[in-house]
Write a structure and sequence with these properties.
Helix content: 25-40%
Largest sheet: 7 strands, mixed
Shape: globular
Structural class: alpha/beta
Strand order of the largest sheet: 5-4-13-14-15-12-16
Low-confidence stretches: none
Oligomer: single chain
Mean pLDDT: 95
Number of strands: 18
Number of helices: 11
Order of helices and strands: EHEHEEEEHEEEEEHEEEEHEEEHHHHHH
Strand content: 25-35%
Distance between the termini: 42 Å
């Protein structure tokens, strides 16, 4: 079988297939390691998936967050602290390289510099057209990101498209970012911003509905100014789109499966995608070596409830971002809940199922 794309979803798919005994080739258009725009905070589900892949997260963690500062459009800030670090921060270039090594250690073959330009299916096989010739495989997992050719072939339909803007900047001396992240509830409907510490580097970004692109850009620039950060010092600066699939969107066409961002699998409110990529990639790799038709139901069971809860949470947050800020600031127990969600001790869908939380979201319009 073949896997297209060597990000977390592709590496997880290749490793799962190789572990199942399938002859597996992992195709990547760039050389590794390569820069990937991403916040890089690993929530509990991601940490568990990385550990399951056999990757030691310790050397990859450039910082470990135990404090979070919350602001609302850069104002009304307050900070909460946990008893211990719960959110490791990584660079995607390093994480992806480690996951790919785990896949090749399992027996997958890595080929870099391979750009897939077209998909065709005939005689029970998938034929990939690349700039260096054809690749034929019994099944293919498309994990080639949010601008995926595999997604076009499968017919993935997305109901939510967001614009993320992000920069990697030098950490200002004495600014107190070590061990501390920032989350800012943004002024654009459904938007938020973040600062994630990574040793000598800060990852600063915002995300919001692509339909409000100029406003998202203005928010990004405002957040940087409010934090006294100079974009001219950025090592990296740019934007990307994230896409969330419609619940009825296909995940399989014939012998081609899609996973991760290519499938639009991410949590709609936070737009967290690493854990979804790792989990869906592993499911896709296993299904591709056994029963392709089992993949959609496996994704629905494993990821569907979290995505449905995220849709409800996003709808409520979009209507009342300031109220969300005040709830986090004033209600006892909310910080503890946030900590448990991020660290993986509970999940958003389990919390939304609680009568009190569900009632609150319903009142807020979610």
């Amino acid at each position: 079988m073949a896997v297209v794309g060597a990000g977390p979803a592709g590496a997880a798919a290749a490793q799962a297939a190789a572990r199942a005994g399938a002859r597996t080739v992992l195709l990547e258009r760039e050389d590794l390691p390569r820069y990937k725009r991403c916040g890089g905070g690993l929530i509990g589900a991601s940490q568990a998936a990385v550990a399951a892949a056999g990757v030691d997260l310790g050397p990859l963690a450039l910082d470990r967050v135990d404090r979070v500062t919350f602001t609302c459009n850069s104002r009304a800030g307050f900070t909460r602290r946990s008893d211990g670090a719960f959110l490791p921060m990584v660079l995607r270039s390093q994480l992806d390289a480690a996951l790919v090594r785990a896949a090749t250690d399992a027996g997958a073959e890595l080929r870099t510099g391979v750009t897939v330009t077209d998909y065709a299916q005939r005689d029970g096989r998938v034929v990939l057209q690349t700039r260096s010739g054809e690749v034929s495989a019994g099944a293919v997992v498309g994990a080639d990101g949010s601008s995926s050719r595999a997604a076009q072939h499968v017919g993935v339909v997305c109901e939510q498209v967001d614009l993320g803007l992000e920069a990697e900047l030098p950490t200002p001396a004495g600014a107190g970012w070590s061990g501390r992240a920032l989350l800012d509830w943004g002024p654009v409907p459904g938007s938020y911003g973040w600062v994630f510490p990574k040793g000598d580097t800060l990852t600063v970004g915002v995300i919001g509905d692509r339909a409000h692109g100029p406003a998202v850009r203005a928010y990004y620039e405002h957040l940087l100014r409010a934090l006294d950060l100079d974009l001219r010092t950025a090592v990296q600066d740019g934007g990307h789109l994230t896409r969330v699939r419609s619940p009825s969107s296909p995940l399989v066409r014939g012998r081609v499966l899609v996973a991760g961002d290519a499938a639009g699998l991410l949590e709609p409110w936070t737009r967290e995608g690493i854990s979804f990529a790792l989990r869906s990639g592993a499911l896709a790799g296993a299904a591709a070596t056994d029963d392709v038709s089992s993949y959609p139901s496996a994704v629905a069971a494993a990821l569907g409830p979290e995505m449905a809860a995220g849709r409800r949470a996003l709808a409520a947050y979009t209507r009342h971002p300031r109220l969300v800020h005040e709830v986090v600031r004033t209600l006892p127990g909310v910080w503890g809940l946030f900590h448990r969600l991020v660290s993986g001790q509970t999940s958003l869908d389990r919390q939304v199922e609680r009568r009190s939380v569900s009632a609150m979201i319903r009142v807020l319009g979610g």
